[in-house]
Write a structure and sequence with these properties.
It contains seven helices and nine strands. By secondary structure, it is α/β, with parallel strands linked by helices. The protein has a domain of 182 residues: Flavodoxin domain (Rossmann fold, 3-Layer(aba) Sandwich). The termini are far apart. The structure holds flavin mononucleotide (FMN).
Length: 273
């Protein structure tokens, strides 16, 4: 039986995120078991940027509960994630865990390619801001295989399932978890399927999911995005992940080489403020 991990990034118990995760689970075609993890229940401290986890099989020096969450993801067969919009972005519990991402590289074998779906829940239709992008970024950086993401709307706890469209979204997300992947229908990044872009010039854009740049132009009345992969990638392929890890580990050597030149810059600012 497949083990499904439901990740809820909201402190509200039996709120819309928890209900959506469970609704997606109920719609799964095959028998599965569900474990639920509420990110806000865990003590997850800020990353100290010491890089030691990279040289220690992903074990972080911080004595908190981050590894419990990481282990739960690593041992699941698939992930259903839901996060609410909180001032136009996903709830901070999601980012708090993500910021500990250097330690994820020690679990690459257990993380890479795990099927996952994501739901952004917002109280006001259209007012989710960057929540869906935050959810997609989270799933990409835990090295999951995003099968589908959706934004759904509902404010009061439970209200999310009053809407037929939201119930259909739960069913569709469930079908794509182990079935055919649902790609974005509008203009999207050909490298990562992201559909949020920042304009850098009249027709040049950067994909806000994979951070690669390219151009946007019209073809037969439709916007088409062409994105070119930069030399340094974070997650497009498994090799990218390995290369990025090696690059990060190289920072230690680089720091040792540059230490003498860097120290006077820092020391000069020591007493300010
Ligand atoms: C502090 C706070 C900020 C919120 N910010 C937004 C927002 O920016 N946009 C929006 O559409 N809804 C916003 N909402 C509404 C929630 O996204 C909505 O109620 C959602 O259903 C909550 O999910 P939950 O029940 O799982 O906690 C906010 C709610 C709270 C409590």
């Amino acid at each position: 039986m497949k083990k499904i991990l439901g990740i809820v990034s909201s402190a509200r118990r039996l709120g819309n995120c928890e209900i959506m995760v469970k609704a997606v689970f109920r719609n799964l075609a095959r028998p599965c078991e569900l474990s639920l993890l509420r990110l806000t229940d865990f003590q997850i401290d800020p990353c100290r940027g010491c890089y030691r986890c990279l040289f220690n099989d992903g074990h972080c020096v911080i004595d908190d509960e981050c590894s419990i969450v990481l282990d739960a993801i690593g041992s699941a067969d698939a992930v259903i994630l839901a996060a609410p919009a909180c001032f136009l972005g996903a709830h901070s519990a999601l980012k708090r865990f993500l910021d500990r991402g250097l330690s994820f590289y020690g679990s690459e074998d257990r993380l890479w390619g795990k099927p996952a779906v994501g739901v952004a829940v917002a109280g006001i239709p259209g007012m989710e801001g960057g929540t869906l992008l935050d959810i997609e970024r989270f799933l990409k950086l835990i090295l999951a295989d995003i099968r589908q993401t959706q934004a759904v709307y509902g404010a009061l706890p439970g209200e999310i399932l009053l809407d037929q469209g939201n119930r259909e979204a739960a069913s569709s997300l469930a079908q794509s978890l182990f079935g055919p992947k649902i790609h974005k229908t509008g203009p999207n990044c050909p490298l990562c399927d992201g559909d949020a872009f920042r304009f850098m010039g009249p027709d040049t854009v950067r994909c806000l999911l994979c951070s690669n740049a390219g151009i946007i132009h019209m073809m037969d009345g439709t916007a088409v995005v062409e994105i070119n992969p930069a030399d340094h990638q974070l997650f497009l392929t498994r090799q990218d992940v390995k290369d990025h890890k090696a690059w990060l580990m190289g920072m230690k050597e680089r720091f040792m080489t540059m230490r003498k030149a860097l120290e006077p810059i820092s020391v000069d600012y020591l007493k300010d403020g």
